[in-house]
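Curious: can you check?
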Amino acid sequence: MALDSTNRALVGAQFMRENAEAATYSKAELAAAVAAADDWADANAAAYNTALPAGFRTKATTAQKAALLCFVIQRRSGRLRVEEDG
């Protein structure tokens, strides 16, 4: 389910707080990117669900599936550290 405008704004604000890299884009451009990412996630939810192994797909909740994708994306971006990293 897509985020409403308040939650999209909150995502943008949190991204600005946590972004450690230099930003050359404007707040309006970031807001548009948040909206595009959210729209993409909504439009591709069925494809993501289908890509998951049936055993997980049929037993996991929608929130668990979203959290799993978040962990994978955060790890790929270097933001997720785990206990095993030491």
